[in-house]
Write a structure and sequence with these properties.
The protein is of the alpha+beta class. It is built from four helices and three strands.
Length: about 140
């Protein structure tokens, strides 16, 4: 019988080994995670949550020299929690704003809608208290 081979090392988008959430958090510059901690907190207005996410995307874009994360909510959440070329967590992987499905959710538990306007502009929409997108109570921030 053939000898057992070690499992292949999973690689991140930058080609580096995928790190644990703890390693990603430890590699993240001070202050980045503190900024995101206000997401969905009672002391913050709901509209400010959308603006905070837009600001996180702007920070990501500035650190990656002009690129936005792409994809659906879960894919963008994966990038913002550390699977990115920088290896930084812009949002803690264990944030209460992340659903079991791996999506960033608003304070009412509905996944945020990320709308890529251009290669360097993204809007963020919350479905609001009625939990239905594109109705009168939606909240949106973006360029």
């Amino acid at each position: 019988s053939a000898p057992l081979q070690p499992p292949p090392v999973l690689r991140s988008v930058a080609g580096n080994p995928i790190r644990t959430p703890e390693e990603v958090i430890a590699a993240t510059p001070p202050g980045v995670l503190t900024f995101a901690a206000a997401l969905n907190q009672p002391a913050q207005r709901p509209h400010d949550d959308c603006q905070l996410l837009v600001s996180l995307l702007e920070l990501y874009r500035s650190l990656t020299r002009g690129t936005d994360p792409v994809g659906d909510n879960a894919e963008i959440t994966t990038v913002l929690t550390g699977r990115n070329p920088l290896g930084y967590a812009f949002i803690r992987p264990d944030s209460p704003a992340i659903s079991r499905e791996g999506e960033l959710c608003d304070r009412w538990g509905t996944p945020y809608f990320f709308h890529q306007i251009s290669g360097t502009r993204m809007a963020v929409r919350s479905a609001g208290p009625d939990r239905k997108l594109f109705t009168a109570d939606d909240l949106e921030a973006g360029p």
